[in-house]
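# step 3/5: fold
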Amino acid sequence: MDNLGTDEKRVAIEAIATLCYVKRPMVELLLKPARVPEDVYQPLLYKRDDMGRALSKRELAPLILGACENRPGAERVVRRIVEIAASWSSFHLAKDEYAARATVQKAREVLDIVQTMDAREAQIRETARQEEIGRISRERANVLRKQSELLLMMFDETARSGEPHQRGYLLQDLLNRLFDLHEIPVVRSFTRNSGGEQIDGAFKLEGWHYVVECRWREKLADIRQLDGLLGQVQRSGKQTMGLFLSIDGWSKNVPPLLKQNPDKCIFLMDGYDLRCVLALEADLRELLMAKLACLNLEAEPHLGAKEFQEQSRD
């Protein structure tokens, strides 16, 4: 690559020296398009040697390129001069047309090599980038699998033991861990309105906020529990909806009554849905988005994980 850089500089010097006989066209057609700083070339155009002779363009060329090497933004001056030379067609401006044509031919050869090497290096970088992406993806998948296994064990153990009130707190903790694992921003349990209102939790997805109500009791949830969540949503900002998670499900009159709500701002999730996510049979983010689509488009408050999996296979 060092030799190639030397070849580029040689071509750039030849371009400055041979393509234009007069300095002014050389400035307008070569130096300015190559974005050589004016304060670099201007003092050199009429610089004289110790004998009072004006420097030739061949003598000026290495001085111009050398002055550009350490200038911010001027690092690619040599490459741009070579690119201009490779497409040069104004041979009538040269003192020696044959020398000018030889310079153009050499510029094309060097540029072809440069572009080939740049493409090869770009491919190497892209391959390395893809390998790094693959490595990160594999590591994340491994972490997701291990952490999901632990959360699933926690869920099953809680299901076998613990009194209902205690299970509710454990469920909130499990959900917080689950949302963190799937990189969905979550807000843990908090109070608002001067402590008069307890929120089990909340999360943010696709620019919307979701208030979460958690239930893990042997008795099926009824519409009275959902009315409490509806009130929390209505007392929140306009870009807020509600997720009602009831591990043991809800009474059969809950979905029809939710459909009567003109706001359609609450959707449902049960224990089977949650277990499918913990078992990595369904992606949490994709399942939530599918549930929301079902609510918004079909007015159905509950899309089960089984139906979601069937849709995904279609």
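# step 4/5: annotate
The first helix runs from residue 2 to 18.
# step 5/5: archive (pending)
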